[in-house]
Amino acid sequence: xxxHGMVYEKKKALYSLIDGFDSLMVAFSGGVDSTLLLxxxxxxxxxxxxxxxxxxxxxxxxxxxxxxxxAVRLGVRHILYETHEMTNPEFTxxxxxxxxxxxKCLFQSxxxxxxxxxxxxxxxxxxxxxxxxxxxxxxxAAEMGVVAPLLDAGLTKADVRLLSKExxxxxxxxxxxACLATRIPYGTxxxxxxxxxxxxxxxxxxxxxxxxxxxxxxxKIARIEVPADELDRLLDGEVRVxxxxxxxxxxxxxxxxxxxxxxxxxMNR
Length: 269
Known about the structure:
This protein has 269 residues and is α/β, with parallel strands linked by helices. The protein is built from 11 helices and 7 strands. The strands form 2 sheets. Strands 3-2-1-4 form a 4-stranded parallel sheet, with helices on both faces. The chain is globular, with a radius of gyration of 19 Å.
């Protein structure tokens, strides 16, 4: 009970923070965190909130479709904005601050769009948990003046899922997502071909009914991560053979299954 009480205090803080804005543009991926942020912002600001979603090769097409569906469901004006990080050699070189480079350019573009719509404040869905991982994108957001109401209210990812469930948001139990570039080791150039292989390979694995999947791209090797308790599903004879066949058809020579299972941020090691 005490734990739930703390969550509701954070919820009150979140509503108070958002109520302090005249208008808001929400960087909207359609994931768990940004969906809660957008839903609460719409509750308070109504037509003074706009969602904006980045569209490019680094974002799965399925995520774009989901973002569009959620914006329609929430009744929020939604802008799809095509980004061009793949034309930036600093980004495609894939340095350790790749996310910083991407977010810096992204939010610069978002502020230009916001200015044309008469909005001065942009928010993103960072949470209290994000500060405990290597997230150079957070630094870029802070430098650009992008606000993080969920983080400022002290909400963790578990809090966000709890509140999302209580608000009837279908995203409450969605698996975490991240841009496809996070599947490529730092220092390995990011190419459109690699991103395509990753996206299609993950779709192949997800079609087997697993809750979450990452296909890490190590050159000709595909390293599959799924939750540890679902490894058996992939190692079943026919399923295993089918995955190997389809991933090799995509261009991988070797297909490996990580026995440690899915680990968030594993490429930051």
